[in-house]
Every structure is written in structure tokens, then in C-alpha cells.
Amino acid sequence: MLEAPGINPASSSSGSRTSKSWTLPVDIMSFSCSYVTTSSETHDGALIRQVLAKAANCSSAMATLIGGPSAVMQATPEVQKICDEIKHHAETKAGKKFAVFVAKSFTTQVVAGTNYFIKVNVGGDEFVHLRVHKSLPHTGQKLHLESIQTLKTQQDLIEYF
């Protein structure tokens, strides 16, 4: 059987079909991707290329690593509701009142609950970034404003802080 560096194959057969699974290392984690072959396929470079193509599809589905940030998305009504609930705390931490408090975009991070990193327009060209923690439902805890960054612009990227 042809082996490729970093790919650890395992096989099981059932009739004329052979199920092959490969564990592929990706940065600091690994994941498994299964590929079913027929007994007529040979184990050559073409098969390995097919497996790697299948693995690429698996890895794109795994683009958000557990504990890593999601892609930046446009704010949703749910995110605006979070901002509405946390506005008073943001004003207290910033030391000023905001006449406007409109969520524009956000990213999330799955932890023991969810961290929301939210870009909020607070009037004109002024923005703030919020890090809000939403606990798991069974805890019964309320939303918590973990941190706020002021003096942001629309062009500033939302990053972990």
C-alpha cells in the first residue's frame, strides 16, 4: 500500500466495498475523514490524491476550530438584543453615555458558553468593540460584559481582546 507522510490509513471491508479512514494532522489538531473505495481501485498516487481532495473538503468544514473565532458576520437581531441588554454596562465601563448603540458585525468563540466580539456604532464614525460572554443555559447566568475597547473605527478588525 502506498503511504503518504502524515497520513495514517485504516481499512475495513464489507463485500465489494472497502471503507478507508485517514487521520490527517492539521496544525495542532487532527481530524478523521472517511472515504469509501471499491475493490477495483488501486492504491496508487491517484487514490492518495483523491483522499487528500476529500480531506480538503473535510478541513473546510472544520474551518472554525473549537475554541477559535468564527468568521466575521453581519450583526443579527439576536446580537442587537445582546447589545441592548449590555448597553448600560458598556456605558459604565467606557465612562460615557452612548446616544446610538447599533451592532454592525460580530464574531463568536465557543468556550464554556459563547464569547461574542461585537463591533458597535456609537454615533458618527465612532465605534466600540465589546466582548460579551453568554453562559451555557443550564447555569442560569446573565450576559456579562467582559471587556470594551473604545475609539475604534469601522475599519478596525474585530480581534480577541
From TrEMBL:
CDD domains: CY (cd00042)
GO MF annotation, one: cysteine-type endopeptidase inhibitor activity
GO BP terms: cellular response to bacterial lipoprotein; immune system process
Subcellular location(s) of the protein: Cytoplasm
Listed SMART domains: CY (SM00043)
Cystatin domain ranges (all copies): 64-161
Protein name as annotated: Cystatin-B
Organism: Cyprinus carpio carpio
